[in-house]
Amino acid sequence: TGRTALMEAAREGVLELVRGLLERGADVNLFDLERHSAAHFAAKGGFFEILRIISAYNGDLGLIAMNGNTPLHYAAEGGFANCCKFIGQRGCDPTWTNLLTKTPRAIAKEGGFKAAAAELRKIEDTFIKQSKPGAKEDNPRWALRLYDWSLEHQTALCKAFEAVDQGDGTVAKDDFISVIQKQCAFVDIEQIQTIAEMHEGSHAEGINTKEFFKGSRYLQKNCLITSFGAKGKKGKKGRKRRGKRSIAIPVPICVVPKSACPRREDGFPVYMIEAIQSIADSYHVNRDHPSAHPVHDDRAWYIDEPRKIYMNINYLVRAGDFLSLQKAFEEGVPVDTKDKYYKTPLMAACASGNVEVVRYLLEKGADVNATDNFMWTPLHHACYNGHLDIAELIVKAGAAVDAPAIGNATPLMRAIEICRLDIVYFLINAGADIQATNSNGKNALDIAKVFADSRIIDLLQNKLENLPKVPEKREAEKEKVVKPKSASTLMPVEVQAVKKEPSEIPLPAVEKSVLEKTTHSLKDSVIYLNSLIISGATKRDNITFKPRKIWAPEAATEELVRKQELLRERFTLDGHSESFTTPFNRKVME
User: Are strands 207-208 and 170-171 parallel, antiparallel or unpaired?
Assistant: First the structure.
């Protein structure tokens, strides 16, 4: 193909590799057998940053391929508006037609790319205007290249400017010209002086280097790199809102950063564990009639063991995969490990409603008061998803009944939101605070009125009316202050020891009799071992059968059906129906 490494890196869009090759002296204007350069491949993929680097290293963005296409044709074919704008400003002819007699704007129109076609229309108008004889070039090619080059080499230029800095972020005109002339070889001395004079007018003492990197002094605004960003819609002007604004709650990002995610020695995150797969062959093995003896089970000889699969531990918790969880915990995976969404296995089990997994995790020592990024505890998840039996189990294990979430919402408020009277009644009896308020100043009764469940409203009103009155603090003031005894009144150690009862005096340890001898095992005797060698017992072959693979016991069909029946009965008793959804998952039709 005649392609270089730079072309392939530009085609794949690997920014750091393109930069590294150009820094080491790769020729940016080489082309392959079809006369495609690195700029063609970058434009075809819509890689704007790579086009910037190619322009900074004197790349020709107007090269014509064998099919007559320029990089602008490929950018228009993909509908990349920013790439079309950049290539058109950096010297590519927008009126050039390929072998199919099509301009870049015609190609963009055929593809239905309105934004790209609009940019190409502006570029054509500017190109035709500046092509007229005697027309002044607003953005010279050398100035555009100097701007792209200065942004790409900004770090090196800043270090050079710091050496001649006057102390206020400015450099002298002569120093500025010498630094640019030394670093940038493609700009002549007259052009550098022109740039220096443009920047010297605003600061009499010197040239501000920050303004030089902005490029607004010698280029128009639409050529600057800031004009290629996404433009936001302007909001409608209106009256400013008076009064105190609500304080924004500092909610962290809902995904753990890769740098903060703990990893194992093999590079996998800790929450990714190995899933034990069921590779039973239904043609040879029946789960309802398992093999009576390991010798009869010959599956391991004709079944290929699959590759290892690593899954999120919370996925396996929801599926109830006890074997994978047990293997992970035996290998040292923490029980309270959090996935990238800050959820622990206990939270996932409470949200999914798997009581057996919750009980298993509690036996393993899971933290019942662990919190996620929204400060929700496992009790919040259990109450919000309507699992009464799990809530009872967690509270019995020591969960905080009034644990506040990030908006100070308690599990009681989450139970009120899903209108579960039984969970509300249980939490109140467990000691939940009815008068607790969230960050909006609403208590449990206010939230119940919003969700309009008359049963819960009546229950809360009855509990609030029957609250015991808080006793006054007078009794505490009348309590006598007990003075500590002075050191003189304390009894000496000898006197206290004399007054101890005989039963409290420690008895001396009874020494072992010297006559007692430690009994040695017969197997440790030299005579016994010598007799075994003479009799040939040590030369016997071990014919103990070791199966090639020990299979995990599989549940029979009757057990699986019974499990589903129990699960359906449990959800029915808890008040779940097929149309049950939490408030966050409900869709309101207008």
Answer: antiparallel
The tens digit of pLDDT for each residue in 193-232 reads 888 888 776 556 778 878 888 878 788 888 888 887 655 4
CB atoms within 10 A of CB 515: 5
Instruction: Write the pLDDT tens digit of every residue in 12-49.
Output: 988 999 999 999 989 999 989 999 999 999 999 999 99
Q: Classify residue 518 by its DSSP letter.
A: P
CA distances from 292 to 280, 289, 295, 545 (A): 16, 9, 9, 15
Residue listed under structure tokens 């089970």 = 297
Angstrom distance (rounded) from CA 381 to CA 351: 5
Under CATH, what is the fold of the domain 141-228? Recoverin; domain 1 (1.10.238)
DSSP count for the chain of H helices, then E strands: 27, 4
State the pLDDT confidence band at 324, using cuts at 50, 70 and 90.
Answer: very high
| Domains 5-130 and 141-228 in one fold | no
Tokens of 298: 């010959």
Which one of 3.30.930.10, 1.25.40.20, 1.20.950.20, 3.40.50.1820 gives the CATH number of domain 5-130?
1.25.40.20
List 269's β-bridge partners, or say none. Answer: 263
Retrieve residue 333's tokens: 């995976």
Q: What is the DSSP string of 385-453?
A: TT-HHHHHHHHHTT--TT---TTS--HHHHHHHTT-HHHHHHHHHTT--TT---TTS--HHHHHHHHT-
Yes or no: say if 64 and 35 are a contact pair by the CB < 8 Å rule: yes
* Sequence-distant (≥ 6) Cβ neighbours of residue 470 within 8 angstroms: none
- Taking every pair of Cα atoms in the chain, the longest distance, rounded to a whole number of angstroms, is 124
Distance, CA of 13 to CA of 313 (rounded, Å): 34
The C-alpha atoms of residue 419 and residue 448 are separated, in whole angstroms, by 8
* Virtual torsion, Cα 60, 66, 70, 73, nearest 10 deg: -160
How many Cα atoms are found within 13 Å in the side-chain-facing hemisphere of 438?
Answer: 17
